[in-house]
Each structure stands twice: as structure tokens, then as C-alpha cells.
Amino acid sequence: MTKAGEGRLPGPSPGVKSYYPAMLDLEGRPCTVIGGGRVAERKARALLEAGARVTVVSPVFTLQLEAWAASGAVRALRERYAPGLPALAEARLVFAATDDASVNAQVCAEAEALGKFANVADDGAGGGFLVPAAVRRGRLTLAVSTAGASPGLAAALRRRLEEAFGEEYAPYVELLHELRDIVQQAVPETGERQELFRRMLEWELLPLLRSGRTDDPAELRAELARRVLQDPTPGGMEAIGDWLRVDARQLGYE
Ligand SMILES: C[C@@]1(CC(=O)O)c2cc3[nH]c(cc4nc(cc5[nH]c(cc(n2)[C@H]1CCC(=O)O)[C@@](C)(CC(=O)O)[C@@H]5CCC(=O)O)C(CC(=O)O)=C4CCC(=O)O)c(CCC(=O)O)c3CC(=O)O
Ligand SMILES: NC(=O)C1=CN([C@@H]2O[C@H](COP(=O)(O)OP(=O)(O)OC[C@H]3O[C@@H](n4cnc5c(N)ncnc54)[C@H](O)[C@@H]3O)[C@@H](O)[C@H]2O)C=CC1
């Protein structure tokens, strides 16, 4: 560990664009996509998955965007982009996804002037933020970005992550979340809590949760919660680890 004041000042490596990774809560927040093609549809889909209020602006939409508009999932404004658009002024995030580079640049400039972050489909360096390729497993998100160097590589790595981190991670993370809440209530001392969390990560839960291996993740969660509450100590966590191994053997994995 370096002492305060020592070493190189934090900053991007020379010559390499260094983006700041963040998880945005867009639930209920207005976001506007300019354009109605394939790329606009992909951006709109990700926004809907995040619970944003989505407006799309374009004279023409894909069939999927049309369907979302008809069902009320998105608001569709059938017009070409022009500066001063209220849907842009009210948006938290702006996406320029038309096939016209000059329109995308205009959208980007207007968003910038209004102090908004924009994503520009044909100019990664332009707008303020990029969209990474992402794998979602419940509360777990794995995101990959190449800072615009190769979106195809980001997508390929996403596919590899999808294989390596299966659906079982969703109940796994849910389980850790629930047990974490329990330990936070039961153990007042931070250092002790950290030790328990560390040991929980050593439990062999993932093979148990892999599809078809345990009947009911909620039942397993309840049983683990009971055991954690009974003995919230490092020894208790060790004992649960042993119990899980025995259980795993009974289920026929070892
Ligand atoms: C800069 C960025 C801006 C942004 O859009 O945020 C951007 C820009 C551009 N993409 C282009 C092409 C393609 N993009 C994809 C796919 C994705 N592109 C995404 C993000 C980003 N793309 C941002 C950088 C992300 C990063 O690097 O970190 C993903 C990850 C997320 C998403 O869009 O949802 C999503 C994969 C999702 C997934 O599969 O999981 C494919 C593959 C496909 O379509 O299947 C191709 C064709 C193959 C190829 O060209 O590689 C072109 C050239 C257009 C042209 O030449 O005409 C530009 C413009 C330029 O490079 O300047
Ligand atoms: N960032 C990314 O992931 C990718 C970006 N691209 C880039 O994104 C651009 C768009 O790609 P696609 O969606 O496949 O094109 P597309 O041709 O399917 O769709 C273009 C859309 O822009 C709309 N549009 C055109 N002028 C407009 C205006 N003045 N106001 C509002 N809407 C307008 C059209 O109505 C159409 O809906 C491409 O030209 C390419 O440069 C391409 C592939 C991936």
C-alpha cells in the first residue's frame, strides 16, 4: 500500500481513453433515443430492461419499436429530429442512433450544451458515454467495454461470459444478499461481519444451484438463513460449509 502523497497521481494512461464505469439507476427516468432503426431498437431494449421511460424519435421505426409503441411500452414521436425538441430537454440520457452522421453530431452537441450525457452510435468518442456489452444474472451484471476499439470483441467476450457465468448466479447472488442482510442485523462489529462474508464466499453453493440440482433455491435460502442466525461466527460458517459439502455429496455430485 502506498502512503498518501506517494506515487503517480491518478489519471488516465497517456494516449488511452479511460472511461468511468458506473451502474445507472434509470427506473422511471426519462431517456430519449433519436432514430428508429436496428441500433435504436437495441438501445431502447436495454433501457426498457432497466425500467426507464423511453421516448423514440424518428419518421420510421422497426417492427419491434412499432409494437412497443402500440403497447405503450415506449412513447414514439414520428418526426425528424430538430434542435429544441422537448423530449431531448427532459431526458436524463440521450441516444443519437440515426444513420445520418450530421444529425447524430447535432443531437450530441445539443445534449452537451444542456449538460447531458449522450451516446452516439456512429462516434464513440463524441458523446460522453458508451454502452458496454452486458450479461445479467439477476442482481449480477457483467459488463464489457473496449472503449470503442472493437464493439465486436465486446460482444464476443460477452458470449464467453454468458457461458462461464450461468443462470445459477442469479439465485446465488440473491442468496448472498439475503444472508448479508441477516448478518448485518445480527453482528454489530464490522470486522467480524467482513470475516463472515468472506467465509460465505467459500461455500460450494454454485454446483448446488446449477439447474436441476436443488429443488427450490428459496428453501435452501431459508435453511441457510436459519443456520446462519443460529451461529453467526466463523466456526458457524465453517460448519455450514461442511454441511453443504455433505449435502452436495448426497445429491450426487462428488
Ligand atoms: C462506441 C460504441 C457506441 C455505442 O453505441 O455505445 C459503438 C460504436 C459502433 N459500433 C459499431 C458496430 C457494431 N456494434 C455492434 C454491437 C454492439 N455495439 C455496442 C456498443 C458500442 N458500439 C459502443 C462501444 C462499446 C465498446 O467498445 O465498449 C454494444 C457492445 C452495446 C450495444 O450497442 O447495446 C453492442 C454489442 C452488444 C452485445 O452483443 O452484447 C456490432 C455487432 C452486432 O451488431 O451484432 C457491430 C458490427 C461489428 C463491428 O463493427 O465491430 C460501429 C461501426 C458502424 C459502421 O462501421 O457502420 C460503431 C461506430 C464506431 O465504431 O465509431
Ligand atoms: N453503436 C452501435 O452499436 C452500432 C452503430 N452503427 C451505426 O449506427 C447507425 C444506425 O444504424 P441502424 O440502426 O442499423 O440504421 P437503420 O438504417 O436501421 O436506422 C436508421 C434510423 O434513423 C432514422 N433517422 C434518419 N434520419 C433521422 C432524423 N433526422 N431524425 C430522426 N431519425 C432519423 C431513420 O428513420 C431510421 O429509423 C449506422 O449508420 C452506423 O453508423 C451500426 C451498427 C452498430
Question: What would your notes on this structure say?
Answer:
- This is precorrin-2 dehydrogenase.
- Pathway: Porphyrin-containing compound metabolism; siroheme biosynthesis; sirohydrochlorin from precorrin-2: step 1/1.
- InterPro entries: Met8-like (IPR028161), NAD(P)-bd_dom_sf (IPR036291), SirC_C (IPR042518), Sirohaem_synthase_central (IPR028281), Sirohaem_synthase_N (IPR006367).
- By secondary structure, the chain is α/β, with parallel strands linked by helices.
- It has 3 domains: 30-131, NAD(P)-binding Rossmann-like Domain (Rossmann fold); 132-164, Double Stranded RNA Binding Domain (2-Layer Sandwich), CATH 3.30.160; 169-250, no CATH class.
- It contains 10 helices and 7 strands.
- The chain has helices spanning 38-49, 63-70, 86-89, 101-113, 151-164, 169-186, 190-200, 206-209, 217-230, 234-250; strands at 30-34, 53-57, 74-77, 93-96, 117-120, 133-137, 140-144.
- A 5-stranded parallel β-sheet has the order 3-2-1-4-5, sandwiched between helices.
- Helix 4 (101-113) links the parallel strand 4 and strand 5.
- Helix 6 (169-186) packs antiparallel against helix 7.
- The longest helix has 18 residues, at 169-186.
- The mean pLDDT is 92.
- It binds ligand SHN and 1,4-dihydronicotinamide adenine dinucleotide.
- The site of 1,4-dihydronicotinamide adenine dinucleotide has 21 residues, from helix 1.
